[in-house]
Every structure is written in C-alpha cells, then in structure tokens.
Amino acid sequence: MSRRIAAFLQLLTIVPFALGTVIVLFFGQGAQKAAEAEMVRQGHAASMLAENGISFAGSDGLAIVIMIVLAALAALNLAGKKAGRVGSWIFHPILLVMGVLIIPSQLFTAEFIQLPGVDAHALVEAAKAALPGWATAASWAKLVLTTAGSVAVVALLATRSARAATSR
Asked: How far is residue 32 from each of residues 7, 17, 53, 129, 138, measured CA to CA in Å?
C-alpha cells in the first residue's frame, strides 16, 4: 500500500509541473511583455530585464524532464520494481533541494529581484496580472509536493511493506 501511495504522490507532483509548463507556453510571453512595459513605465529600458537575466517567459525544459522522470518512477513503483524504489530514493532528495532552492524564487520573485531604481513589487505584479489566477496556487502546490511530498515518498518507500512488495 505504501508503494502505491508513493506512486500516487509522484503522479500528483507532475500536475503542478504540467500546469507550470502550460503557463510558460500560453502566458509567458504576455507576462514578459507586461514586465517590459512596467520597466518602461518606471523610466527604464525594457532590455534591462534581459541584461540582468530576468525573464517572466520562463523555461519549461527542466520541468518536462522532471515530469518524465516522475512518471517513470511512479510506473516502476506501481509495478513493484526495485529500480523504482532505488531511483526514487536518489531522485526525490534532488527534487527536494530543487524545491527549496528554486521554487521560492518563483513564489517570492520580487524579493529576489535586485535592480537599482526599479520597483520590483510593481514589476512582478505587472507580470502576474498577465498570468492566469491559478498560477500562484500551482507554484504553491509545486513547492509542497517537491518538498514535503518528496520526503513522504522516500519515507513510504522505506517501509517494510514497500520493501516486501518489491521485485527485481
């Protein structure tokens, strides 16, 4: 049973990553344009964002890799394969660290932007206004599932019942 719950958590973790990819693909450019317009409104060049490595358009390559790995691990765990359990023990601590280091910057972007003379909160609010209302909820779900969810998956797969239900 614990193996199935772990696999369910892995599949559930895919959801906010998929939603994030949808946001990037369908709303990212609009958010970037809104941020650039806000820069101009504040009296700065729109190019200042790119010059400082700031993009609200996002990148979905890493998210897609994470979704594929999670799906593969969940399938292996559901099939009771040892590779799924061992792979999960390797991958989820990495995902946990990524969740702690990367996702807060998506949720608290204004606190991470350091541009002289720029009202970072107004900049972020302009970009957020171009995103769907559920974007923040998806980011919070991603944070919870990559951190607490990863800990839960590792713990669940360490139980006696998960070990007993695993084959080569």
From this structure: 36, 20, 12, 11, 19
Q: Return the C-alpha torsion angle 74, 75, 78, 80, nearest 10.
A: -110
pLDDT band of 106, cuts 50, 70, 90: confident
Q: Provide the residue ranges of all domains of the chain, joining segments of one domain with +.
A: 2-164
Please provide the DSSP assignment of 65-127 as one string: HHHHHHHHHHHHHHTTBHHHHHHHHHHHHHHHHHHHHTHHHHHSHHHH---TT--HHHHHHHH
Q: Record the pTM.
A: 0.85
Name all contacts of 9-12 with Cβ < 8 Å and 24+ positions apart: 9/145, 9/149, 9/152, 9/153, 9/156, 10/70, 10/71, 10/73, 10/74, 10/77, 10/88, 10/153, 11/70, 11/71, 11/74, 12/145, 12/149
At what angle are helices 2-41 and 61-78 packed, to 10 degrees? Answer: 170
CA 52 distance to own-chain centroid? 22
